[in-house]
Design brief:
This protein is of the alpha/beta class. It has one domain: Rossmann fold (3-Layer(aba) Sandwich). Helices cover 30% and strands 28% of the residues. It contains 6 helices and 15 strands. Helix 1 packs antiparallel against helix 2 and helix 2 packs across helix 3. The radius of gyration is 18 Å and the shape is globular. The relative contact order is 0.19.
Length: 217
Protein backbone atom coordinates (compact mmCIF):
# COMPACT_ATOMS: atom_id res chain seq x y z
CA UNK A 1 0.00 0.00 0.00
CA UNK A 2 1.17 3.55 -0.73
CA UNK A 3 1.87 5.72 2.30
CA UNK A 4 -0.12 8.97 2.23
CA UNK A 5 1.14 12.14 3.92
CA UNK A 6 -1.16 14.89 2.65
CA UNK A 7 -4.84 15.68 2.18
CA UNK A 8 -5.74 18.21 -0.49
CA UNK A 9 -6.64 21.59 0.94
CA UNK A 10 -5.44 20.78 4.49
CA UNK A 11 -2.35 22.65 5.69
CA UNK A 12 -2.41 21.66 9.35
CA UNK A 13 -1.86 17.91 8.86
CA UNK A 14 1.45 16.48 10.12
CA UNK A 15 2.06 12.80 9.32
CA UNK A 16 5.17 11.37 10.97
CA UNK A 17 7.70 9.80 8.61
CA UNK A 18 10.03 8.60 11.37
CA UNK A 19 11.22 5.00 10.77
CA UNK A 20 10.51 4.00 14.39
CA UNK A 21 6.94 5.29 14.10
CA UNK A 22 6.36 3.43 10.84
CA UNK A 23 7.77 0.19 12.24
CA UNK A 24 5.67 0.37 15.40
CA UNK A 25 2.50 1.23 13.47
CA UNK A 26 3.02 -1.87 11.32
CA UNK A 27 3.19 -4.03 14.45
CA UNK A 28 0.15 -2.21 15.86
CA UNK A 29 -1.92 -3.00 12.77
CA UNK A 30 -1.11 -6.74 12.86
CA UNK A 31 -4.27 -8.62 13.83
CA UNK A 32 -2.17 -11.15 15.80
CA UNK A 33 -0.76 -8.49 18.18
CA UNK A 34 -2.16 -9.26 21.68
CA UNK A 35 -3.69 -6.54 23.90
CA UNK A 36 -0.64 -6.21 26.18
CA UNK A 37 1.72 -5.57 23.27
CA UNK A 38 -0.91 -3.40 21.57
CA UNK A 39 -1.10 -1.15 24.66
CA UNK A 40 2.67 -0.91 24.82
CA UNK A 41 2.86 0.07 21.16
CA UNK A 42 0.14 2.71 21.61
CA UNK A 43 2.22 4.29 24.39
CA UNK A 44 5.47 4.10 22.43
CA UNK A 45 3.95 5.66 19.32
CA UNK A 46 2.26 8.34 21.43
CA UNK A 47 5.61 9.26 22.98
CA UNK A 48 7.21 9.74 19.56
CA UNK A 49 4.25 11.72 18.19
CA UNK A 50 4.03 13.97 21.24
CA UNK A 51 7.74 14.71 20.94
CA UNK A 52 7.04 16.05 17.45
CA UNK A 53 3.74 17.74 18.30
CA UNK A 54 5.20 19.75 21.21
CA UNK A 55 8.31 20.99 19.35
CA UNK A 56 6.93 24.55 19.17
CA UNK A 57 5.78 24.97 22.78
CA UNK A 58 7.12 28.25 24.23
CA UNK A 59 9.65 28.26 27.06
CA UNK A 60 10.91 30.66 29.72
CA UNK A 61 14.50 30.97 30.85
CA UNK A 62 15.30 29.26 34.12
CA UNK A 63 18.42 29.89 36.20
CA UNK A 64 19.86 26.84 37.94
CA UNK A 65 23.20 25.60 39.21
CA UNK A 66 24.84 22.44 37.98
CA UNK A 67 27.41 20.76 40.30
CA UNK A 68 30.04 22.89 38.51
CA UNK A 69 28.55 26.24 37.53
CA UNK A 70 25.46 28.41 37.04
CA UNK A 71 23.38 27.58 33.98
CA UNK A 72 20.55 29.30 32.12
CA UNK A 73 18.12 26.67 30.89
CA UNK A 74 14.46 26.47 29.93
CA UNK A 75 11.10 25.46 31.38
CA UNK A 76 7.76 25.19 29.62
CA UNK A 77 6.03 28.56 29.69
CA UNK A 78 2.44 27.40 29.26
CA UNK A 79 0.39 24.96 31.28
CA UNK A 80 -0.53 21.90 29.26
CA UNK A 81 -3.78 19.96 29.46
CA UNK A 82 -4.20 16.40 28.22
CA UNK A 83 -7.69 15.53 27.00
CA UNK A 84 -8.00 11.81 26.22
CA UNK A 85 -11.21 10.92 24.42
CA UNK A 86 -12.65 7.92 26.28
CA UNK A 87 -12.01 5.16 26.05
CA UNK A 88 -9.36 4.63 23.40
CA UNK A 89 -7.45 7.79 24.31
CA UNK A 90 -6.65 6.44 27.77
CA UNK A 91 -3.75 4.43 26.36
CA UNK A 92 -1.94 7.61 25.30
CA UNK A 93 -2.13 9.43 28.65
CA UNK A 94 0.71 7.72 30.54
CA UNK A 95 3.11 8.35 27.68
CA UNK A 96 2.16 12.03 27.70
CA UNK A 97 2.60 12.27 31.46
CA UNK A 98 6.05 10.70 31.21
CA UNK A 99 7.03 13.59 28.95
CA UNK A 100 5.05 16.29 30.80
CA UNK A 101 4.53 15.15 34.40
CA UNK A 102 3.00 18.48 35.43
CA UNK A 103 0.29 18.36 32.76
CA UNK A 104 -3.35 18.38 33.84
CA UNK A 105 -5.59 15.56 32.65
CA UNK A 106 -9.25 16.10 31.80
CA UNK A 107 -11.48 13.37 30.36
CA UNK A 108 -14.17 13.73 27.73
CA UNK A 109 -16.36 10.73 26.94
CA UNK A 110 -17.83 10.31 23.47
CA UNK A 111 -19.15 7.29 21.62
CA UNK A 112 -20.16 6.93 18.01
CA UNK A 113 -23.74 6.06 17.13
CA UNK A 114 -23.19 3.12 14.80
CA UNK A 115 -26.32 4.00 12.81
CA UNK A 116 -25.71 7.71 12.22
CA UNK A 117 -21.91 7.69 12.82
CA UNK A 118 -22.43 10.87 14.88
CA UNK A 119 -20.68 11.39 18.25
CA UNK A 120 -22.73 11.28 21.44
CA UNK A 121 -21.27 12.89 24.56
CA UNK A 122 -21.73 11.03 27.85
CA UNK A 123 -18.94 12.33 30.12
CA UNK A 124 -17.24 15.68 30.67
CA UNK A 125 -15.09 16.49 33.70
CA UNK A 126 -13.70 19.84 32.58
CA UNK A 127 -13.70 22.51 35.31
CA UNK A 128 -15.86 25.61 34.92
CA UNK A 129 -13.21 27.59 33.00
CA UNK A 130 -9.96 26.90 31.18
CA UNK A 131 -6.98 26.24 33.46
CA UNK A 132 -4.33 25.61 30.79
CA UNK A 133 -2.95 27.44 27.78
CA UNK A 134 -2.35 24.41 25.53
CA UNK A 135 -4.71 21.44 25.10
CA UNK A 136 -3.58 18.17 23.53
CA UNK A 137 -6.52 16.03 22.39
CA UNK A 138 -5.47 12.37 22.57
CA UNK A 139 -7.44 9.91 20.43
CA UNK A 140 -5.84 7.05 18.45
CA UNK A 141 -8.27 7.00 15.51
CA UNK A 142 -9.43 9.96 13.41
CA UNK A 143 -12.12 8.23 11.35
CA UNK A 144 -15.19 10.31 10.48
CA UNK A 145 -13.81 13.21 12.51
CA UNK A 146 -17.05 13.58 14.47
CA UNK A 147 -15.64 12.87 17.93
CA UNK A 148 -12.54 15.00 17.36
CA UNK A 149 -14.60 17.92 16.07
CA UNK A 150 -17.02 17.67 18.99
CA UNK A 151 -14.13 17.51 21.48
CA UNK A 152 -12.55 20.65 20.04
CA UNK A 153 -15.97 22.35 20.08
CA UNK A 154 -16.24 21.56 23.79
CA UNK A 155 -12.72 22.80 24.52
CA UNK A 156 -13.22 26.08 22.67
CA UNK A 157 -16.48 26.75 24.51
CA UNK A 158 -14.54 26.00 27.71
CA UNK A 159 -12.08 28.74 26.80
CA UNK A 160 -9.13 26.85 25.35
CA UNK A 161 -7.07 29.09 23.08
CA UNK A 162 -4.52 26.66 21.63
CA UNK A 163 -5.48 23.09 20.75
CA UNK A 164 -3.60 20.28 19.00
CA UNK A 165 -4.95 16.89 17.97
CA UNK A 166 -2.61 13.93 18.47
CA UNK A 167 -3.76 10.60 17.04
CA UNK A 168 -2.23 7.51 15.51
CA UNK A 169 -4.16 6.61 12.35
CA UNK A 170 -6.36 8.98 10.34
CA UNK A 171 -8.66 8.69 7.35
CA UNK A 172 -8.79 11.54 4.80
CA UNK A 173 -12.50 12.01 5.59
CA UNK A 174 -11.74 12.62 9.26
CA UNK A 175 -8.88 14.98 8.52
CA UNK A 176 -11.08 17.04 6.20
CA UNK A 177 -13.94 17.15 8.71
CA UNK A 178 -11.76 18.28 11.63
CA UNK A 179 -9.79 20.76 9.54
CA UNK A 180 -12.93 22.21 7.96
CA UNK A 181 -14.56 22.78 11.35
CA UNK A 182 -11.35 23.91 13.09
CA UNK A 183 -8.69 25.04 10.62
CA UNK A 184 -6.58 26.44 13.47
CA UNK A 185 -6.03 23.01 15.06
CA UNK A 186 -2.86 21.15 14.01
CA UNK A 187 -3.36 17.42 13.40
CA UNK A 188 -0.45 15.12 14.31
CA UNK A 189 -0.77 11.43 13.36
CA UNK A 190 1.46 8.45 12.72
CA UNK A 191 -0.28 7.33 9.52
CA UNK A 192 -2.80 8.57 6.98
CA UNK A 193 -4.81 5.69 5.55
CA UNK A 194 -6.75 5.21 2.35
CA UNK A 195 -10.42 5.68 3.25
CA UNK A 196 -13.40 4.80 5.43
CA UNK A 197 -15.52 1.75 4.69
CA UNK A 198 -19.32 1.72 4.68
CA UNK A 199 -19.38 1.24 8.47
CA UNK A 200 -17.11 4.21 9.12
CA UNK A 201 -13.99 2.18 9.94
CA UNK A 202 -10.57 3.21 8.67
CA UNK A 203 -9.14 1.02 5.89
CA UNK A 204 -6.67 -0.65 6.18
CA UNK A 205 -6.67 0.70 9.76
CA UNK A 206 -6.23 -1.61 12.73
CA UNK A 207 -9.78 -2.40 13.84
CA UNK A 208 -11.28 -0.88 16.97
CA UNK A 209 -8.48 0.71 19.03
CA UNK A 210 -10.45 0.50 22.28
CA UNK A 211 -11.38 -3.14 21.86
CA UNK A 212 -7.84 -4.11 20.91
CA UNK A 213 -6.32 -2.26 23.88
CA UNK A 214 -8.65 -3.80 26.43
CA UNK A 215 -9.35 -7.20 24.89
CA UNK A 216 -13.07 -6.61 24.41
CA UNK A 217 -13.38 -7.21 20.68
Amino acid sequence: MTDFTTVSGVDQLHVSTHPLVREKVTRLRDETTPPKIFRELIAEIATLLLYEATADLPTDEREIRTPLAPYTGARLKDKVGLIPVLRAGIGMVEAALELMPEAQVWHIGLFRDERTLRPISYYNKLPSSATVQVCLVLDPMLATGGSATETVDILKKWGAKRIKYVGIIAAPEGVRALSSAHPDVPIHVAALDERLNEKGYIVPGLGDAGDRQFGTG
